[in-house]
């Protein structure tokens, strides 16, 4: 049965009342992540199993062949070791995360956040083609979420800031003097830049401290450096965590962090518009 118009209006009322338009995209991204992880798991897992089986057979054959060559060709252990290492590089697969469901979920996170650490990559043509298609959908989705959630953060923090400022003015009973000193205060539509910057720096430091819970060998600076490189979506890959599956949590921290950066850029834009508008008013007064 199709929903009636009152039911649709009621659903829209609760949708707007609880600000679902800000959080629904996160649910959509979560479902999109699970769907992508499941698809890449189906595409890459069997291929990885076959490659590991082939690797095992090649290693056994290499060991046997090495023993025979040792008996027939080589006279010193040094020559045997050099030959073995050279052949081993041809057979051994590159170190990477495994294509289980967690590995696939980690991979789709590197796609739609555009970080791309490179420690897990598709090896099949189908997987690479799907990566292109998945990125074409996932990256715009994340950008839309960052823009919407950044606006939500800016509006929410601004309301709290203005409310706190009004309480501060009433507490000190200097409202009249305050308004006289700042005739254009009513034009201020957002939080100060320093406060938005403080939120951004605090988030980076808090997430860096969070990583130290499971990355025991890291210093705080190493954790701070790793999260900043991830937040800036550079993804150098020079710092590798000992628990890579925990990076799945990091992707959501990065998305929230990028939303805070988006909020910071919005605040800077609004402040620039305020300064320009105030300058134009002062010029007209003169």
TrEMBL record:
**What are the alphabetically sorted keywords of the record?**
Ion channel, Ion transport, Membrane, Transmembrane, Transmembrane helix, Transport
Q: Which Pfam families match?
A: Ion_trans_2
Q: Where is the Potassium channel domain?
A: 98-154, 199-273
The way this protein sits in the membrane is described as: Multi-pass membrane protein
Kindly list the residue ranges recorded as spanning the membrane.
22-43, 101-120, 132-153, 191-213, 220-240, 246-268
Q: Which BP terms in the Gene Ontology apply to this protein?
A: stabilization of membrane potential
Write down the superkingdom of origin.
Eukaryota
Is Acetylation among the key words of this record?
A: no
Keyword Protein transport appears in the UniProt entry: no
Compartments in which it is found: Membrane
SUPFAM superfamilies of this UniProt entry? Voltage-gated potassium channels
GO MF terms listed in the record are: outward rectifier potassium channel activity; potassium ion leak channel activity
Its main localization is membrane
A GO cellular-component term linked to this record: plasma membrane
The Swiss-Prot or TrEMBL record describes its family as follows: Belongs to the two pore domain potassium channel (TC 1.A.1.8) family.
Identification of the protein by name: Ion channel
Organism classification, top ranks? Eukaryota, Metazoa, Ecdysozoa, Nematoda, Chromadorea
């Amino acid at each position: 049965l199709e929903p009636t118009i009152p039911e649709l209006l009621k659903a829209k009322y609760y949708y707007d009342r609880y600000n679902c338009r800000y959080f629904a995209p996160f649910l959509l991204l979560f479902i999109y992540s699970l769907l992508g992880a499941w698809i890449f798991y189906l595409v890459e897992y069997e291929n990885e199993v076959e490659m590991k089986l082939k690797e095992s057979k090649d290693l056994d054959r290499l060991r046997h062949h090495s023993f025979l060559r040792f008996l027939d060709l080589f006279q010193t252990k040094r020559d045997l070791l050099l030959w073995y290492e050279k052949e081993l590089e041809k057979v051994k697969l590159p170190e990477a995360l495994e294509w289980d469901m967690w590995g696939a979920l980690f991979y789709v996170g590197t796609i739609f956040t555009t970080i791309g650490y490179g420690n897990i990559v598709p090896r099949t043509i189908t997987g690479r083609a799907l990566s292109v298609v998945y990125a074409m959908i996932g990256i715009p989705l994340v950008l839309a979420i960052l823009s919407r959630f950044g606006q939500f953060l800016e509006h929410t923090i601004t309301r709290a800031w203005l409310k706190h400022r009004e309480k501060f003015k009433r507490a000190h009973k200097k409202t009249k003097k305050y308004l006289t000193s700042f005739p254009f205060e009513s034009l201020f539509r957002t939080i100060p830049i320093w406060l938005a910057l403080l939120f951004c720096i605090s988030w980076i430091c808090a997430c860096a401290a969070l990583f130290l819970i499971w990355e025991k060998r890291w210093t705080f600076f190493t954790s701070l450096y790793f999260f900043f490189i991830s937040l800036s979506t550079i993804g150098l890959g020079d710092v590798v965590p000992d628990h890579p599956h925990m990076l799945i949590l990091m992707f959501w921290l990065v998305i929230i962090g990028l939303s805070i950066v988006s909020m910071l850029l919005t605040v800077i834009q609004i402040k620039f518009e305020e300064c320009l508008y105030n300058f134009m008013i002062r010029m007209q007064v003169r």
